[in-house]
Structure formats: structure tokens, C-alpha cells
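Please go through the protein record below and see whether the fold suits the sequence. Record follows.
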Amino acid sequence: METYAAVLTYAIPGFIGLIIIEYLWSRIVHRDIANSMDTIASLSSGMTNTLKDMIGLALVIVGYEWMHRHLSLGEVPNDVLVYVIAFVMIDFAAYWSHRFNHEINLFWNRHIVHHSSEEFNLSCALRQSISGIIGVYFFLSIPMAIIGIPPVVMAVTAPLHLFAQFWYHTRLIGRMGFLEHILVTPSHHRVHHAINAEYIDKNYAAIFIIWDKMFGTFQEELEDVPAVYGVKKPVQTWNPFLINYQHLWLLMTDAWRTAEWRDKARIWFMPTGWRPDDVQRNYPIEVVDDPNMLVKYAPEQPKGMVFWSWAQLIIANLLLYFMLSQIANLSAGQIALYVVFLGLTVFAYTSLMDGSVMSIGAELIKAVLGIAIILTVGQWFTIDDVLPGGTIIVASYIMVSLVITSYFVHLQMKTKSQPQVQSY
């Protein structure tokens, strides 16, 4: 855990730095690639994924070390070649796990958050899931265990493979010549994130595009078909917690509503988007049939909301960064409390971005928890040892956040209650 936290203290600033560079370059070349609220939602989603990892909220059915110990036919030398072999095999497994996530109803819930943005930029790469709690794809690692790739090699190679998928989430890089035949490029991945009929469920590969070409899922980006981003059933929220479980809730309600017991059982493993006939007939849902008619999610916001949302994101990230830097000095219980506090923070300000009154409830719980932590511990965890007066700063933030959130909720409710004047 400490090693993972240490890696994140370098990775997070690196990702944010590249996102800033992309945005500045987009301004120079006059390309509109980002929406403030969407970017905040993406970065907040990345934060929730980190929080999930910090408390180990994942159930691995069969771990790689166990498979290596019981299935290995021999030990592969720990040299450069084995790292290359491991990287290629991880990429092959990533292709299939990614494809299963897209093509099986239940597993789409593990991945929908990553596709939920109606923009496409580097921040979208950080829209990672908190709903994939159970590791269901362990069987894809069996070949690696059998040939004897050491667990230490997997521990080093897997994060590198994940981080290598960040850079191609951009609209600012065009075709890349001969690399288009070897690697996944921004052009390939724009296709993957699009909901156009020509592009849907194509280009699953993570690093090597050859897998898509081998298994018939490759699609080139077409000049006359501009990509439209998002999901066929728009999520209509900035809240990453709600996005993560929207599809699962739909499956649960559809399974409950259908009269056919066969459909109650098979809905989970049918192709993504499949619904029982009686449910589809009695409870229709709107999907995007014509991508060119998509209206991007953009609820009306009070003045200052964007500024306040950015402030909340920055403060939450600073608090997260402090937790990562102090992970060795915190007990498991303290880490859990810290994670809950930051989770409430994200839930509160992203709900406020949606104009939802849930934000004030989350802020109240967050304030009670935060003040209780300070009174119990005597400070905000170990912050006063690093930053004298840090506890006062955190306590002030908690109270100011509650007041400002209450103010914005009041404004939003007042606006909604005002009668609409019609002109004739």
C-alpha cells in the first residue's frame, strides 16, 4: 500500500500537468475540447477510484501469486525479455477483459463510467470505475502463471501497462503514420469512445492495435464521420458514484419488473443493452439513436458555481495528496475515515453541480464527521506535524464548504420555484 501511494504522489501531478498542457495547447490552436464541469467530474471520478484502492475495496477470487505457486510449470528468468513477454500477455488479457466489459450486460456496469463523458480529452482517461469490486477476469492470467512469469514482474508491469493508456485520450493528435498499424493511437481510441453506429464497440485494444485486427473489431477513424462521445443512454449527472451504479440499478429493476423467470436470470449475461420484451414495452427508456442529435448534459448553474466546483476539486485533491504522503503514519482505521470524508466531499460537490439537494445532506454528514475526527484525534490526523495550523485550515474549510453549499442549494431551489413567464 505504501509503495502504491508513493507511486501515486508522482503519477497524480504528472497526469494533472499533462491535462493542463493539453488544455493550454487547445487554446493556442483554437480547439474546443473541454467543459469545466465535465473535466471536474472526470478528475473526481479518478479520485474515487484512488480512494477505493486505498481501502482495498476489491475482492480477488484467485490471486496471481496463488496461481503462480500452484500452476507454474517452471520459473522464467527475471530479465528484460520476461518483462516484454509479460507486457504483451497483459495486453492480450486487457483486450478480452475490455471486450467482455462492453459486450456483457452485467460487466458494462464495471466500465460505463469511463465512457460517460460527452467530451474526449486527457481528463477522461481518469474516469475509472469503483464498481468493479470483484476481480472476475483472473482466468485471463492463467497462461502467464503456467509459463512461470514471477509475481514481481507482474507487479511492476501491470501499472506501467495501465499508465501507458493515458496519453491517447485526446483530440489534438491526428494520424501517426506507421504507428497506426502497431499501437493504439488517439485516432483509434476516438473511435472506441464514439457512439456513432460505425464506431460503436470497436477498437478494444489497450496498447497493441493488432488484437482488434486479429479478432475483427478494428475500425479506422473516418473523415466523413465525426466522432460523437458518450454512451447510448446518457448518464445525465456529474456525480461519479451515481454514474458507477446507474446501469446496475437498471438491470436490477428490469429483472424485478419482467414477468418471465427466464429473463430474470439471463438479463445479466445478455449483450449490453438487452432488455426483456415486456419491460421494454412497459418501461421504455430513451437512448441516442442519432448521435448528431445528442444534446450534451449542461444543467443551468448559479453564477460562481464553476469557480466553487474547481475550488472544491483542488482542495479535495490537496487533502488526498496529504493522505498519500502520510499513509505510513496512519492506521487502517484512520485511512478508512479519511477515505469516507473525501468520498463525502466528492459526492457533495458533484451533487451540487447537478443541482441536487442531496449535496446539502452529504455536506452535513461530512461536516459532522470532519469535526468529530478533529475533536477525537486532537488535530486533522498528522497535519499539524507537517503544516503548523493545518487543523485550523481544514476545520475552516469544512465550515465554509457547508455554508457555501447551503447558499447555492438555496439559490437553485429559489430559481426552480420561480414561475416561468411565457410570452405570446
Notes: The mean pLDDT is 93.
